[in-house]
Write a structure and sequence with these properties.
heterodimer; A: MetI-like fold; B: alpha+beta; 2 domains; 23% helix; elongated
């Protein structure tokens, strides 16, 4: 009993450490004072300012474009990879799986630098396109892993039953496997979307002029000072991300 | 020509299938007639499920030929074979209702909704599931799920229905009911049923003919009665429920009767089988329910008698199951009806006489 309450206390302390700074950021985003350190009453001024800031709106649009396109591309590649790994054993599959995990393990800054050098080498100008390619690359293993976990729990005999009842391999996949896989796929896409939306390091290296995304914009604003405006923007980003991850978890539980 | 005559539903010729280093199916040749209930009986790993999957088209033979309804099946995918399979755990589509499950095969055939509806209703009626068409499989009992699986296959009017351990997931009471129901259903629809099972009672009860498989090979094919009364090998005999055997050598043959010398026991008699000569090593086998146990050494009509010691007595409702130790230290099983009351029961450690009639024994070449 004693040990258990001790463990609970440790967990609570952990969570406090994690969320207290975020909570403070959140509270001060409503601070009427221009200097963040002191509380001078409630205000929505900074949020209102956000929505009139043209540069910020442009960054939001960029972020949404990159996140949406890279999520769709990573979704298609990831689902195909998951099906191949689980249903079509092939030579060197072990090596392939190891390599697939690499983008998740390699330090992000290495990935960023490597991609920057690669794009320069092949003379592809940095733009939204290079960022989309980079985001697709780090997102597709995430989709593949989540969808594969779901696929592994599916009885392969269901697809055989469809084949036995006259379905071609493609129809059997479309009518039986895909619908049963859907919660996993939707969850994986939400996760990929969130990762793309939140990414700073890889975006920083692969973004071109005029393709600034929200996290890059926040970083740029911080260079001058921690303004309440930054607090407000960060608060929105945190809330959206948490909502997306919660949705991803909820969908997958079905 | 030969077995590919018009009354053959399935012909397998020298079919071989390897799984890695093991021979799952070893040069299997078999003819299954149109409209018969054919059971393939064997322990797990005997190759019976692989045989079924070869027929369904989920696996391709490494050698040999499979002909279904006169058509060679070489390279024909599962979706284009005139067979349907009832899977062991039914493999019902969990995201579709009962009606959608049953309609799936007809949709694949490209039938119109106006035609699918009545046929689905008819199939559900046949398996007594009318009224449950809008349920999901997870809302049905095991027995109901099994009937959905049957309807989903039969609605397509296949030439052959393949069943993989169809009653394996049901409890005992339901299994007995379904044995009767399946057999009745097969007679009603009149198509060929090929049923794979490891349960000898199930195979004997339901089938018109059955095959016994072991280590990928076909050991014996025949009617339930032929297999039960005249098992062709020691394995068939033990698998079909004859667990008692005595190794010996033929000493003499007089007409229908062979006398066998068994070391440590003496002479026993059994009906002669073909190919016997004096000196041939044989197994004398006898089913546990054909043995009599008595405290009286008088032979009273039984031609064979051995003095034994009761090693274990197990009460099993209407029967007593005894394990008895023979003078040569072999252990036999005997099943004796309990109708005679408790006075005649034996207890562990008691001496007794084990008796049987010569005609009840079966002689197998070793």
């Amino acid at each position: 009993m004693k040990t258990r309450s001790w463990l609970v206390a440790a967990s609570v302390a952990d969570l406090l450490f994690l969320y207290l700074p975020i909570a403070i950021l959140f509270v001060f985003s409503f601070n009427a004072s221009k200097l963040s350190a002191r509380w001078q009453g409630f205000s929505l001024e900074w949020y209102a300012k956000l929505f009139t800031d043209q540069a910020l709106l442009a960054a939001t649009v960029n972020s949404l474009i990159v996140a949406t396109v890279s999520t769709v591309l990573a979704g298609v590649l990831g689902v195909l990879t998951a099906v191949a790994l689980e249903r079509q054993p092939f030579r060197w599959q072990g090596a392939f799986e190891g390599l697939l995990l690499m983008p998740i393990v390699i330090p992000e800054i290495m990935m960023g630098v490597a991609m920057l050098l690669f794009f320069v080498m092949i003379k592809l100008p940095l733009s939204l396109l290079t960022m989309i390619i980079a985001h697709t690359i780090f997102n597709f293993p995430v989709v593949a892993l989540i969808v594969r976990a779901r696929l592994r729990k599916l009885d392969p005999r269901l697809e055989e039953a469809a084949r036995d009842l006259g379905a071609t391999p493609w129809v059997a996949f479309k009518r039986v496997t895909l619908p049963l896989l859907m919660p996993g796929i939707v969850g994986a896409l939400l996760m990929a979307f969130t990762l793309s939306l939140d990414d700073f390091i890889i975006s920083f290296f692969t973004a071109g002029v005029g393709s600034t995304t929200l996290p890059i914009k926040v970083y740029g604003m911080l260079k001058s000072a921690v303004t309440p405006e930054v607090n407000a923007l960060s608060a929105i980003l945190v809330l959206v991300s948490m909502a997306l991850v919660a949705a991803a978890t909820w969908v997958q539980r079905k | 020509m030969d077995e590919a005559s018009t009354d053959a539903s399935i012909v397998m010729r020298e079919v071989t299938k390897r799984h890695g280093d093991t021979l799952a199916v070893d040069r299997l040749s078999l003819t299954i007639r149109k409209g018969e209930f054919f059971a393939i009986l064997g322990p797990s790993g005997s190759g019976k499920t692989t045989t079924l999957r070869l027929l369904a088209g989920f696996e391709q033979p490494d050698a040999g030929e499979i002909i279904i309804e006169g058509q060679p099946m070489q390279g024909v995918p599962p979706n284009r074979r005139p067979v349907n399979l009832v899977f062991q755990n039914y493999a019902l589509f969990p995201h579709m209702t009962v009606a959608q499950n049953v309609a799936f095969g007809l949709e694949m055939k490209g039938l119109q909704a106006a035609e699918i509806g009545p046929r689905v209703a008819e199939a559900l009626e046949m398996v007594r599931l009318a009224g449950k068409q809008d349920r999901l499989p997870s809302q049905l009992s095991g027995g109901e799920q099994q009937r959905v699986a049957l309807a989903r296959a039969l609605v397509n009017h296949p030439a052959v229905l393949l069943l993989d351990e169809p009653l394996g997931a049901l409890d005992k009471q339901l299994r007995l009911e379904m044995e009767v129901e399946l057999k009745a259903l097969q007679e009603r629809v009149g198509i060929t049923f090929v049923c794979v099972t490891h349960d000898q009672e199930e195979a004997l009860t339901m089938s018109d003919r059955l095959a016994v498989m072991h280590h990928g090979r076909l050991l014996q094919v025949g009617t339930p009665e032929e297999i039960y009364t005249a098992p062709a090998s020691a394995f068939v005999a033990s698998f079909i429920g004859v667990s008692n055997s005595l190794p010996g050598r033929v000493q003499a043959i007089e007409g229908q009767r062979a006398t066998v010398a068994v070391e440590g026991i003496g002479l026993v008699h059994a009906p002669a089988c073909t190919g016997l000569r004096a000196g041939t090593p044989v197994l004398v086998t006898i089913r546990p329910e054909r043995l009599h146990l008595s405290r009286d050494p008088a032979t009273d009509g039984y031609q064979n008698q051995i003095a034994v010691r009761v090693a274990k007595a197990i009460y099993s409702g209407n029967e007593m199951h005894y394990l008895v130790t023979l003078p040569n230290n072999l252990t036999w099983k005997a099943r004796v009806p309990n109708a005679d009351g408790t006075a005649k029961r034996f207890h562990a450690g008691e001496s007794a006489y084990l008796k049987w009639r010569t005609t009840e024994a079966v002689l197998l070449p070793e």
